Amino acid sequence: MHSLRGFLYGVLLLLLCVCALGADAKEQAPLKSKYNTASRNVAIIGAGSAGASTAYYLRKFAELSGVPPNITVFERETYIGGRSTTVDVFDNPSYPVELGASIFVSINHNLMDAAKELGLKISSAGGDRPKDSDKMLGIWDGDSFVYTQGHSLSWWEMAKLLWRYGLAPIRIQSLMKNTVNKFLEMYKPPYFPFSSLSSAVQALDLLQATAVTGAQFLETNGISKSFSNEIIQSSTRVNYGQNLGLIHGLETMVCMATDGAVAIEDGNWRIFSGMLDSSRADIRLNSTVTAIEVNSDETLTLSYSINGSSISSSTFDDIVIAAPFQYSNIELSPSLESIPDKVPYVKLYVTLFASPHRISPQYFNLSKQKDVPDMILTTLPKGLDLGSREDGVGPTSFWSISLLRIVEAPAEGPHQQHYVYKVFSPERPTAGFLASVLGVEIPEANQNGTIGDISRKDVSWVHEKTWHPYPYEYPRVTFEKIRLASNIWYTGGIESFISTMETSSLMGMNVAGLMTNEWQDKLQLGKPVNWSGWAGQRNREL
Ligand SMILES: Cc1cc2nc3c(=O)[nH]c(=O)nc-3n(C[C@H](O)[C@H](O)[C@H](O)COP(=O)(O)OP(=O)(O)OC[C@H]3O[C@@H](n4cnc5c(N)ncnc54)[C@H](O)[C@@H]3O)c2cc1C
Ligand SMILES: *[C@@H]1O[C@H](CO)[C@@H](O)[C@H](O)[C@H]1NC(C)=O
Ligand SMILES: *[C@@H]1O[C@H](CO)[C@@H](O)[C@H](O)[C@H]1NC(C)=O
Ligand SMILES: *[C@@H]1O[C@H](CO)[C@@H](O)[C@H](O)[C@H]1NC(C)=O
Ligand SMILES: *[C@@H]1O[C@H](CO)[C@@H](O)[C@H](O)[C@H]1NC(C)=O
Ligand SMILES: *[C@@H]1O[C@H](CO)[C@@H](O)[C@H](O)[C@H]1NC(C)=O
Ligand SMILES: *[C@@H]1O[C@H](CO)[C@@H](O)[C@H](O)[C@H]1NC(C)=O
């Protein structure tokens, strides 16, 4: 199959060269001065999911269109992956843990397909998590656990769920499936590739979910308040740092679509690194794009600095901004008609640490160690509704504490096992808080300090990071433009619709599709791309 594709691609290239030669000699010369027909020079800003996917699909679609792209990717960080990145516990490369995006799900076509094609190992999420406690999961409201679950949902736990929440646990499943199925239409014609996200969302009847809060959406669909507040809200809090009175209905459904949760062994960023390799893009790390200038012949001049030093520039036919515009610090000149609006982003504090201690039962007012859940999610206590407040964490003060894995501590006697934890919180946790969660004593003077003030014998390794991980997903009915100007494309608008690695990848693929259509059109290369054919082919290969 691959060799056949390679052969066809060779033939297309050859045809293209012949056509270009023909055009050169005749009256089409003015078109050619504007339009580089031999190949298009494309710059992609950002080597995260969106940028890597744009490059990967541009290369794939070149086989359909016959316009080979010459792709350069600019990334200001020292690494590929953006918000998907790992750090190594004790700096030991055999202990990587996710610092950013940690899971995706089996209906995520782009990530699953790419992982398979790239030969990456997909493992079930949390597969490294030791079953150290009797409880896999607990939902804490700051006073008590409103819900706990064992390592598999036993008939007894299921019975308790139904007793307490009625049919809500079943009803939510079908509501979620129904919503997800509409979303999946975005991967194929007549929707794909969509030139307007707002129009696609409307045509797919998804506005009813994005236009209202999660609380309203669930209520309209007959899900009981107690199930929403106790169970569903713990998921919107751990996934997005927001309560149901703020986050929209569609993102709430995404939080419920956790069937087949998986991750790439050794790090999800490997998908994006593999995509970039297979796109044959020229990748420029440590390269910060500072400005884009629109030239009179429709080409674009991009300025960038390497290693923070002086500015260089290059000219491109197309530029894809594959990062949240508001954090990219890119100057556009002349100023464009549509510049993406600034949207409020969540501030999330991630604390990763290793310790010889288990989580203290005392902190959670439990008597037995075995009862402390491996994964502690949170919700608001009954009767407390913080509505759409962005500072909505409430009495728990954190979003989640989870046990990730057990590692062997270096140079601390033979085979000493340490536990690795991840804490999500809106503020930097104090030493006092973390010490009491671990059940260790620290001097009074250090209570207000940071995790570094806890003794090395109690916290043996730490990595802290503040992220702007996702927007506050306020209800909305319109989304940012994808085409900001002639030949300038933007992926970030999809984050206000659904903010995940997969949706960024979908938008990258979509931009690649739109660019391919436009090249086909402007270069008059004959028949337009048959996207149904492509989507059908893709599904057969799954
Ligand atoms: C802690 C955390 C947990 C998360 N959990 C999940 C999860 O479990 N599952 C999930 O699917 N998603 C999760 N997400 C969200 C997910 O990470 C993002 O939705 C997705 O990775 C965004 O990809 P992107 O390519 O659109 O943006 P990014 O990954 O942010 O990539 C943009 C890139 O552009 C670069 N850049 C920006 N400006 C410039 C410039 N001027 N010049 C050069 N380069 C520039 C940036 O350095 C960055 O690398 C999580 C995010 C975080 C932070
Ligand atoms: C590809 O793009 C790079 C960066 O703009 C440029 O230096 C190079 O000449 C281009 N190659 C071709 C074959 O156009
Ligand atoms: C990027 O910068 C880092 C840190 O300064 C350096 O270690 C790395 O070698 C640089 N990479 C490239 C490709 O310039
Ligand atoms: C950036 O700096 C690193 C060292 O910190 C160096 O190895 C690398 O070559 C530099 N990159 C460029 C493109 O100059
Ligand atoms: C802890 O649990 C005990 C017994 O269940 C209860 O009496 C007490 O009020 C609880 N304390 C807190 C702080 O919740
Ligand atoms: C810690 O902070 C609290 C609340 O801000 C304050 O009352 C207390 O005096 C501080 N303790 C120390 C040791 O600084
Ligand atoms: C596109 O491909 C599909 C599936 O292979 C085929 O049924 C259809 O006729 C094609 N359409 C066109 C316009 O060629």
From TrEMBL:
Domain Prenylcysteine lyase per the UniProt entry, residue ranges: 151-523
Gene3D superfamilies associated with the record: FAD/NAD(P)-binding domain
Family: Belongs to the prenylcysteine oxidase family.
GO molecular function, one term: lyase activity
Source organism of this protein record: Talaromyces stipitatus (strain ATCC 10500 / CBS 375.48 / QM 6759 / NRRL 1006)
Pfam families xrefs: NAD_binding_8, Prenylcys_lyase
Signal peptide region: 1-22
Gene Ontology biological process terms in this record: prenylated protein catabolic process; prenylcysteine catabolic process
Keywords: FAD, Flavoprotein, Glycoprotein, Lyase, Oxidoreductase, Signal
Cited SUPFAM superfamilies: FAD/NAD(P)-binding domain (SSF51905)
Name the record gives this protein: Prenylcysteine lyase, putative
The protein's required cofactors: FAD
